[in-house]
């Protein structure tokens, strides 16, 4: 395996460090997330909380909004109870249970600024709390809806990658390591730039060290992604993978990280996508089959389910 | 036609694939959109829905907002009817029809948080639904207005291109393939970068294949677009189009895609514009006429209607 | 004047065209705006309207918001009058004048969703209009406040430039054309890139043509703007302005356009600034005096009023 | 000290000027802020006010919001008192003190658009003021919440840097000036670019002048920051710091400014981070110890508290 002939400089990391991969835990997972735990993150941190609120699932988000609404109203209900329900004009409850719900619904009407007025505050204390609550309500709801909109409009790329990398025929008498991708979003992606990083474990004086190096590409950039894009690393003399075998790759826990950068033309934002292939995802001697059809009017139809389709040769 | 002398590598796509153009269906339409259908897009997808809501026409958008408002209020009206109109204090309707409208307008007053209070909820059930509705109303309206503002402020470029490309005199004894453009927006465009991609069908062993290659430009970038910009591809020895004829282009369904990138100085955003020319849009032996006038105070006046004006030589 | 020795290609515009400058009307004004009128702009256009609403003065903006509020309420007041004031419960006016104001203030309470409820709608017609008005009010106010926030948060650079360009001593025995700038905002500007374009009228076969070319700079980019930046064009053998005189510049209506690009570190946005100097702004044989003081604790104090200060030599 | 062998051009500033550092006041502080005072900033300026409101501490921000709410309500309370409390239906206060609070809470209910309606305006004057107040309230609260959301979503990087720079062994028989960093945020940083600027005081003809020059790096850019990044300036023949000693650095008040640029993959925004090291922060003959552990399942665990850990050799 000619990989090891390459000279590495121990300090020349690519931001990945030199920790070997053990037990099949690649640094970049297939879904593009980074497989590293971090200890010592500050517990309370505005940016991290914002990050969590924006990236959590929709179910959790709605649960959080709803439960916050209930909890805050309950808290204010107790405050109004403490001040005395007699300070809420129009509250007609006759026992503590009913008093609580009068106060609770008055709070809900205040915090949402709906303010029907059939219940209204009387006296300094109740009025002050209500004035504060309506102010807080406006700010809190605006924040919630800001988050809601932020979740909707967050710039993301959704790329479908072929499930496998192929070692396929390429030019005359040569081979290339290939994968294929297409856009799963309705937006137009332009100015796409691809970076592929190969990594494997190396035994340096009996100690496992992880090595990383970028693979050269036939084409690193395309102007616009109209259909699919087949990315090719030529397996020629310059490639350290020229004569690689499955056993070589398996033995060194090799993996290939894919880093894609593109420009979302619809929202004028740069977006990124990542994925990774393990050695088990590589198929020798196969080639991709077309993922296109023709409509009756001559328009090309891209079938996104066929992006990963290939035939063995 | 010297185009075919150029060597192509089958894998060297520019993101356009190698599907030939049939029945005059270019990959990029004149309005800049991409002429490809896609099958297999996920049906429910936040980003795609957001994309639709932002890019749909204003008429459709308002219709959607209004009908959502009606539908949601109708739904809540039925819920209040189900709970019983006797739980809405102040509702004076005496038959089911009037009850429905009492509930409907109470719902509207609740969801918009206007809450006049001449109708107000009584009891746990009605109060709970009203509390939930006002909360949902705040979130829904904030989302609608977020979309409204997103539609207003979406970064876009509106470029007017000349309707034709001209084969015009250029320098001494030479010719160039030219088109002209100007900004239709009030914003200032700076740092404009142009990319032009020529494509045609080629017969490879009896099979039609689409070829793409970028055309060299006299100037690929201008610092600021104050007036109009005449983009020139010199038809010199380096140009594969040097001796092209209308028949060459027509027979191969040739087309030229224009990809423009610029920076919107007013809103500090990168914007893009695309268009395409078919061979029928190319005029041989003509040149653009000035699109400028002079004001009485010496100021230059750019007439946007004259961007495409030319004279035959 | 050695400028004319430079060869120009007529098609090689920098986006400025070749129209000569007449009556002292430079293409870029001193405040950075572009001095070109455009005819044929579409009258109704979302992006242009948004642009106007964001860039108009604060006075005009508030006047527009206030007058829209008055006009819309007046319109709705007439609708309620048309439906009949008897459909507004609690309206106590006894003549048409009072009826109008009852309807007007009811409309204001509805559109702002304050909804006190001492006046409330009765019947289908009044209720429907009120429901529609409160919905429109929510959307309109959200749009107004979106604009308000957009005006506040719009990324802009505010650079103070020296009023004059100086022909000052530079290195040993050489001279440079210099100007100085500093940041008038509290934000931090990093990665500043400068482009300077010199232009003048040239007589080509009896016809005035405007020529543009970039001037070489000692340093085109600085990493961070902590204090002030003195931008220098060396007047050496490579400079077409080496031996320029005031008369040369005046006779050709020469001017220098300054295009600055920077990154606003606080809000992570690219910002731009432009200005221009006419030949009357150039001072021969002078140099800038320091614009710095020292605080008692050793901190450097930059005095923004002194950015343009110079002494004649 | 070989630094002084380097030739400097007095006009070749890097945006830092040539003012010497006195009394240990470096231009860039350890927290990345710029240590320069500026006189002559315009007092009233939208962008600077926005900047202050976005960057002030959370405590100050909430205090400002709350006190504005109180002050505006107090102002409107006095206006309603001036118009006469008899124009507020339902206000039951019997002395001036109670009248004030009636007016105050009516104002709060109006500005927050809660509008219970147990107090409601009567007559032209009170109605007009209330209509204006509710409009202003909507705009003011939207602005406050825009700021709130702007504070939450502002793109920032939070990088933890090692407390010290080390002169550590590097390659065979060589040394390097090193520091280490990691990401304290949950977001993913990609495309990191590093710039390091060394500065010191030089005695030029008896006058202290500050010199700045960039240090060459082993690697200026990494594709993605998964773990930590050790940035290395090789102390080889090309380095002006090759044989530097503590005394050299101390005597010239030398310092090293670190400018980091990265792309926040989660929010698609470019972010920056800065810090600086003084000569007292440099440790000779030491090396960083690993900051990684292994989880039981093989995942790498980065311990952010150990980023600065080193051993002396």
Q: Any key phrases for this structure?
A:
Immunoglobulin-like; homotetramer; Helix Hairpins; alpha+beta; five-stranded mixed beta sheet
Rg of Cα set of chain A: 29 Å
Measure the end-to-end span of chain A.
Answer: 24 Å
Q: Please summarize the sheet with the most strands of chain A.
A: 5 strands, mixed
Sketch the topology of chain A as an H/E string, one letter per element. EHHEHEHEEEEEEEHEEEEEEE
How many individual β-strands of chain A? 17
Largest interface, C-beta closer than 8 angstroms, per-chain residues: A-B, 69 and 72 residues
CATH architecture of the largest domain in chain A: Sandwich
The low-confidence parts of chain A are: 7-12
Relative strand content of chain A? 25-35%
**Which overall shape of chain A is indicated by the principal axes computed on the Cα atoms?**
elongated
